[in-house]
Amino acid sequence: xxxxxxxxxxxxxxxxLRGGFVFDKGEAAPLALSGRLARSVIxxxxxGASYWPHFRRWREGRPADLENPLDTWCREVIGGIAxxxxxxxxxxxxxxxxxxxxxxxxxxxxxxxxxxxLMHPEYGLWHAYRGALLFDxxxxxxxxxxxxxxxxxxxGKPCLKACPVDAYTPAGFAYEDCLAHVRGAEGKPCRTVGCxxxxxxxxxxxxxxxxxxxxxxMKAFAKL
Length: 224
Hints:
The structure is a single chain. This protein has about 220 residues and is of the alpha+beta class. It is built from nine helices and eight strands. Strands 1-2-6-3 form a four-stranded antiparallel sheet, with helices on both faces. Strand 4 (about 110) and strand 5 (about 120) form a beta hairpin. The radius of gyration is 18 Å and the shape is globular.
């Protein structure tokens, strides 16, 4: 896509290239580092928890009360890579929000699962997009071939049956019900092993996050 150098630089932090594309001419693209409209975007993220040891080592040298540590680490890592490759780094938490999910669907041809997480043909639900690099030149990006959407082949939909409070339904995500359950005494399993609906998905099991990663994310979600 952009040469082995970028993939290697990202890989040193346990992250992976997550596709990219060239913006259409006339498209309202964000600005690149030069101040001109970006012509290409490359997404960076994780597949499974290979990033976790790198983040954990970084975390040990920071204050215990550091706010949004994972977001801070991602910004630092991806920002440094952007400097090395002459790109502008952007994050899913930037304001105003950038259309990361649309970019992801466009880059990898993925579709949403019943839980709202994009379903990957290899990683299942165990992946995320941590940032992106914006370039003011057209990069040689591989064409996307729409993968098989595993949710279409899943008849039983176990991801909609494991949650004790039915937080995920075809009608949407019952955020308040989920949050109250996770914060309560009966929500301890969710806090320690992660979302039960997400864990019920049979796909991408080799990339499933370990308990430590689940606990970190659930603590952040519940703000406990």
